[in-house]
Specification:
Layout (H helix, E strand, L loop, with lengths): L26 H5 L5 H8 L11 H4 L44 H12 L5 E6 L2 E6 L11 E9 L9 H9 L4 H4 L3 E9 L3 E8 L8 E13 L2 E8 L11 E3 L1 E12 L2 E11 L6 H23 L2 E4 L4 E4 L2 H7 L1
Parallel strand pairs: 6-8
Antiparallel strand pairs: 1-2, 2-3, 3-10, 4-5, 5-6, 6-7, 7-9, 9-10, 11-12
Length: 327
């Protein structure tokens, strides 16, 4: 999750998977688009579009934009169709060119089209967590699984903050996430701001015989209506020198959406990773539900230990003794 979601290269294991089933209240709304063949055909054939159709980012008048040395748009009031990153930025990977439009609307379109793909198979559907895999991958890469997750938190289970901005900060905030994510060694912004940035996520080794892992991504974060998005994609591997004894893995996509929907806060994620180590399909099926459930439960537990001032970006952390006294 969040750059460390367990995902593997396809194995030869062809054991049948259960067909998708959904127990959520809004199931039909969430996955009805998977049956819309036109959307599936559209994204499946996206690589065949002409170059002219694939460069709307270059047609936008961005003469007033302020770009970083590597091409990030540093304007904190970026319009929905304004480039978040220069079209010729070295941060864009070859497999993304002609496939992803790096604007707010372009990234939301990517999220919706990937979400609407067919052939997702159920891995788990219980305890307010749905997990599905698509073995065919994405237009960026067909070799690695695409993981879809939906997680729901009842607002009535929360003591303090019940807004999506706070939960995005808990999940991906540079200051707050390291407080609860024990698998994380460091989370560092190399350049940029809250809207567009380069971020290095460095994870600890899970076992002694596995090297530590890191990913360096271009990250875009913004709010549209009752949804807040954090969308990350790896940058080319040769831009930053790797750390000694650390393996650089690739996040083809790490698309994260938090929605405020009546009595629920709902997390939706799409993740495709080359984790740079072979993991059997059977192990994925066994471990992904438990590790993902733990990750989200840790976020919820942390939310009940912190009072976050989203306007001033300050917080008050409650310790266990204070929580017991309140109860």
């Amino acid at each position: 999750m969040g750059g460390f979601c367990l995902c593997c290269k396809k194995s030869q294991d062809t054991s049948p998977m259960a067909e998708p089933k959904m127990n959520f209240d809004n199931t039909n709304e969430l996955l009805i688009q998977t049956k819309e063949k036109n959307n599936c055909d559209k994204i499946a054939n996206i690589n065949t579009k002409t170059e002219k159709e694939n460069v709307p980012i270059e047609k936008y008048d961005d003469s007033n934009a302020t770009y970083s040395e590597k091409g990030l748009n540093l304007n904190e009031n970026i319009g929905d169709d304004e480039p978040l990153i220069r079209a010729d930025s070295p941060l864009i990977c070859d497999y993304e060119k002609g496939v992803i439009t790096f604007t707010k609307n372009g990234l939301i379109k990517l999220f919706n089209e990937l979400w609407a793909l067919d052939n997702f198979k159920n891995i788990s559907d219980k305890d307010n967590l749905l997990i599905q895999l698509r073995y065919e991958g994405t237009p960026m890469n067909q070799q690695f699984y695409l993981i879809k997750m939906v997680y729901k938190i009842k607002k009535s289970e929360l003591k303090y903050n019940k807004d999506i901005e706070s939960f995005m900060e808990y999940s991906y905030g540079l200051s707050l996430r390291p407080m609860w994510d024990e698998a994380l060694k460091s989370l560092e912004r190399y350049e940029g701001n809250d809207i567009a940035s380069i971020v290095c996520t460095w994870g600890k080794s899970p076992v002694f015989f596995v090297s530590e892992r890191e990913t360096i991504e271009k990250r875009f974060r913004f709010k549209i209506e009752n949804n807040i998005y954090c969308m990350s994609m790896s940058i080319p591997l040769d831009i930053y020198e790797p750390k000694p004894d650390v393996v650089r893995f690739i996040d083809f996509i790490n698309l994260y959406k938090i929605s405020d929907e009546d009595e629920f806060i709902i997390f939706r994620t799409l993740n495709q990773v080359d984790f740079k180590m072979p993991i059997p399909q059977m192990l994925i099926n066994i471990t992904l539900p438990s590790t993902s459930r733990t990750w989200y439960n840790n976020i919820k537990n942390f939310a009940n230990r912190i009072i976050y001032d989203k306007e001033n970006k300050t917080y008050e952390l409650k310790n266990e003794g204070e929580e017991k006294n309140e109860n």
